[in-house]
Specification:
Strand order of the largest sheet: 2-3-4-5-6-7-8-10-11-14-15-16-19-20-21-22
Number of strands: 22
Strand content: over 45%
Helix content: under 10%
Distance between the termini: 29 Å
Largest sheet: 16 strands, antiparallel, barrel
Length: 375
């Protein structure tokens, strides 16, 4: 059973541990403005394992402190996480002095995948889909973003992450670009189309590895895993995006394919997901044309809002001599969003490995309960 009392206690302790739990933390000095805040994700996970041993646990999925300094058109941000994966997250300098343009230098999310580019505090389900195993996520680099009323373009040069998130091991340097377009964008109805590409030069002598956890970050076990791939020279990734919002209903889907140039030939791995969501007691879904993504749910009633979600995802790490396995994920979830500071989330996933990395079929069910505090 999910340990709700322990989850609540851990969240309460974490809130007290952060100073000044308040909505307004800004302290302006002339044109200089400093602000800080935090994010607490307290998760309890319960497994029904099959072949691979998996242990129930409760822990801080994220325990993050954010600090930010603004001066005219400049912004300096530094986030540090003390959760289960400690290290620096968004740590960058941003310049916004050009009209409808932004330049960012530092550790930030690379422009690839609308799911990855959505902040973890705005997710409806507790974890991103297993399709994200092929996405670059957060990397150190420099990027430029521009937009107009219906489209956006974001591109940059990137190296490795400031801290290893232990998901996609692909050391090297990348050119990454993403373009989005909204052919239909009016009140209550939006259609989103997007595409992203990554060309990565892998460092000499470094091993490449792709893998994913079963439904939660609160375990170090993997059902599918390519293990170390030696001699990979370059990689090319393509991502395709589709999104639709109609009042309080949202449909979102992505496909990612990664090709690795290895000594045994070109290896191709693929992933995809489709997700549907519906909001009760919240405002209709809104779309950000500047970021090419859907905005977070905003409550409209005194009791908050309820977002119901369903997602189906797959990841194929088999090709040629590589037998990393195939994994399918079916997830149902609900997020009660009381206000922008507090939400309670429940996700239940069935994970099917057909087969897993050892060539064995197995089914796993995982339930995850999250209490989220944002300030």
């Amino acid at each position: 059973m999910l340990n709700l009392p322990r989850t609540l206690c851990l969240a309460l302790v974490s809130a007290i541990a952060f100073p000044a739990f308040a909505a307004d933390t800004k302290k302006p000095w002339s044109d200089l403005e400093f602000s800080y805040g935090g994010l607490v994700h307290t998760d309890t996970v319960d497994f029904d394992p099959d072949v691979t041993p998996l242990e129930n646990t409760t822990d801080f999925r994220r325990l993050r402190l954010r600090s930010q300094l603004r001066y005219n058109d400049w912004r300096l941000r530094a986030d540090y996480d003390w959760g289960i994966a400690p290290g620096w997250r968004s740590t960058f300098v941003e310049y916004g002095g050009f009209r409808k343009q932004r330049i960012v230098v530092g550790n930030h999310v690379a422009p690839f995948s609308m799911e990855e580019l959505k902040s973890s505090r705005h997710l409806g389900l507790n974890e991103r889909s297993i399709a994200s195993a092929l996405a670059p996520s957060m990397l150190v680099g420099a990027s430029w973003r521009t937009w107009r009323d219906r489209w956006s373009f974001h591109a940059g040069l990137f190296g490795d992450a400031l801290d290893n998130l232990d998901r996609r091991r692909l050391p090297g340097q990348s050119v990454i670009a993403r373009a989005t377009y909204a052919p239909i964008k009016r009140d209550g109805f939006t259609v989103h189309l997007g595409s992203a590409v990554e060309f990565r030069d892998v460092d000499d002598g470094e091993a490449v590895r792709l893998r994913v956890r079963p439904g939660t970050r609160l375990t170090d076990r993997r059902l599918v895993d390519t293990r170390n791939l030696d001699g990979v020279d370059t990689s090319q990734s393509l991502g395709l995006e589709f999104g639709l919002s109609w009042e309080r209903f949202r449909l979102q889907s992505e496909m990612i394919q990664a090709r690795l140039d290895a000594p045994e030939g070109q290896l191709a791995f693929s992933s995809q997901y489709v997700m549907a969501a519906y909001v009760i007691g919240g405002k209709p879904y809104e779309y950000s044309h500047s970021r090419g993504n859907f905005k977070t749910v905003r409550p409209q009633s005194d009791w908050g809002s309820l977002e119901l979600l369903a997602r189906r995802a797959s990841l194929d790490l088999n090709d040629g001599p590589v037998t990393g396995g195939k994994q399918y994920e079916s997830t149902l979830g609900a997020a009660w969003i009381y206000n922008k500071y507090l939400r309670l989330m429940l996700s239940v996933s069935r994970i099917e490995a057909t087969p897993n990395r050892d060539g064995i079929d197995e089914d796993v069910t995982v339930g995850s309960l999250r209490l989220q505090l944002t300030f």
